[in-house]
Amino acid sequence: MSDVVSLQKYLQQMLPKYKRILLKLSGESLMGDKNFGLDSDVISRYAQDVKSITELGVQVAIVIGGGNIYRGMNEAETGIERAQGDYMGMLATVINGMALQSGLEKAGVYTRLQSAIKMEQIAEPYIRRRAMRHLEKGRVVIFGAGTGNPYFTTDTAGSLRAIEIKADVILKGTRVNGIYTADPEKDPAATKYETISFSECIQKNLKVMDMTAFTLCMENNLPIVVFDMNTEGNLLKVVTGEKVGTLVS
Questions:
Q1: Full residue range of the structural domain in which residue 202 is found
Q2: pLDDT digits (tens, 9 = 90+) for 179-230
Q3: DSSP string over 179-202
Q4: Which residues are CB-neighbours of 51 under 8 A, at least 6 positions away?
């Protein structure tokens, strides 16, 4: 009888807390220890982490930044106008999306890459209903090229896409295990928040996302979990309801 109870508890622990998630990754996270580009070991590890939650039936959409390839810089320094630089960054996100798609498919996960900028030879155009249908069929959908518009970050693209596909939560994978009172890499006295409200984040000027992205989530009651994506197994823990990272709601 005790074995049956133990099994039931185990199965309850492994039941996903969220049915549909949007995972937001930075482009820099794909570099690993490199100064530029892509680290195949990181991509492989991320692919296995994503696979572990799809096996529980979780529907997964992903938005990746492009900072490991190109980051829009000050126009005065580069000579490239802001809008042009933002479009260059969008193309970088598609490259990262293709790399992650390849890693996921090697791991045996069915994927679709959708782009907000038309490039039919390598990606589907972003169509909301088609994306949702892919998710319902168990495919991981990667959204590339941001929103397709300059002056918007990939954080904003992640928030927008999450709302459009009716995701239950945004999981923001970072190299820090949550939100702190100060930058924990600079201030050893910084303390971590387990949970925090949207209004508190604004009052305390905590940089969870850029303000446009953050406001979209707040207005649509879309919770955000900020967690350390570089610790293997953390994604599975977040999805199954373990206390990992910081919940903003």
A1: 17-248
A2: 999 888 788 888 999 999 999 999 998 988 999 999 999 999 999 999 999 9
A3: EESS-TTT-TT--EESEE-HHHHH
A4: 104, 107, 108, 109
